[in-house]
Structures are given as structure tokens and as C-alpha cells.
Amino acid sequence: MSQTWVAFLRGINLASRNRVAMADLRRVFEDAGCSDVRTYINSGNVVFRKQAKDRKRLTRTLEKAIADELGVPAAVVLRTPAELRAVLDAHPFGKDTAKTHVSFLAEKPPSAAVAAVAAEEVAPDRIEVVGGEIFLYHPNGRQGTRVKTKMLEPLGVATDRNWRTVAKMVELADALE
């Protein structure tokens, strides 16, 4: 029996780099044995069904297929619908989610790296690491943030989405369940 997965791809369709058409991305997932493949907007958000007991193996399979078929090196971060619903429930910054982003980590970060990031002075922005996600609050928007990519790198490979995209991916995943 297949299960529903959500894939967040890192590093595609960034300005003019690593351009990938979503129709091509859906085809690659289908060729890799996935079914009910759906994409959302043009930034590497994929919902699909596939039987897979080993998340790391599925991740490697998809990354290799994307690289081989599309010529683009893209990290794939997988979450289940239940894990994404838990992300929505864990929002640490109050009711207003308009300025929240979530960076999905490929692996749970080392505790020393989490402590180092927590010690960064980024006010009025905020950073909260919860499990395998980095919650980011940018009251002055992404362009005006004091949170720099370099300060998050010790946490590991991550790919960032705004709150609206996370909520939409939960909605799309729930429709497949």
C-alpha cells in the first residue's frame, strides 16, 4: 500500500539558475514509481504517493532521478502529511503567520548547532528550531531580515518555504489521504 509524501526541493528555479518545468518534475517522479504526483507553484513542492519504508533511500532515489533526468542537483527533503500538520501546530510565534517561514532540514540538527543558532542576535527577527524544522519570523520581510543563510548552515541542508506554502502542501497532501 502506498503512502502520501511531500517533497520540498532545494535549489531549483532560483532566478535563472537550475530551471525546471513542473511538468518535467512530475514526469521524473512518475518515472521513479510515484503516483498521484502534484506540484504546487514553481519552486519544487511535490505531493505524491509511493510505498517506501526507507525515507533516506527514497530521498536518494529522487535526488538521483532529478539529477539524471533534468541535469539539476537538487536536495530533496521529505515529510509525511502528519509531520507537516505537526509543523502547523507547532507555530511558535503567535497567531499571525504572515511573516513566518519554515526551513525544512534534511536531518535533525546537532544540539550544539541548535544552541549556537539560538544564541544569535537577530531581533526583531526570530529563530526557533523545533525537531527538523527551523521556524523563522521576519517582521520586516525576507529582504530586511537580520537572519543570514550562513548562520543557519551549521544546522544542515535545509529548504525554506513561507507559511502559506506549508499550509497549502498540507491541504494537497490531505486530499490524497
Mean pLDDT: 94
> Which term fits the overall shape?
globular
Give the distance, in angstroms, between the N- and C-terminal Cα atoms: 12 Å
Strand order of the largest sheet: 2-3-1-4
* Biggest pleated-sheet summary: 4 strands, antiparallel
The total count of strands amounts to 8
What order do the SSEs take from the amino end to the carboxyl end, as H and E?
Answer: EHEEHEHEHEEHEH
Instruction: State which percent range the strand residues make up.
Output: 25-35%
Rg estimate, integer Å: 16 Å
Low-confidence sequence ranges: none
Please state the structural category: alpha+beta
CATH topology of the largest domain: Alpha-Beta Plaits
Number of helices, counting only DSSP H or I runs of 4 residues or more: 6
Under the CATH scheme, the architecture of the largest domain is 2-Layer Sandwich
| CATH hierarchy class name of the largest domain | Alpha Beta
> What percent of the residues sit in helical stretches (DSSP H or I)?
25-40%
Q: Which tags fit this structure?
A:
2 domains; Alpha-Beta Plaits; 8 strands; alpha+beta; 177 residues; four-stranded antiparallel beta sheet
Can you walk through the features of this model?
The chain has 177 residues and is of the alpha+beta class. A four-stranded antiparallel sheet has the order 2-3-1-4, with helices on both faces. Strands 6-7-5-8 form a four-stranded antiparallel sheet. The protein starts with a strand and ends with a helix. The protein has two domains: 80 residues, Alpha-Beta Plaits, CATH 3.30.70.1280; 92 residues, 2-Layer Sandwich (Alpha-Beta Plaits), CATH 3.30.70. The protein has six helices and eight strands.
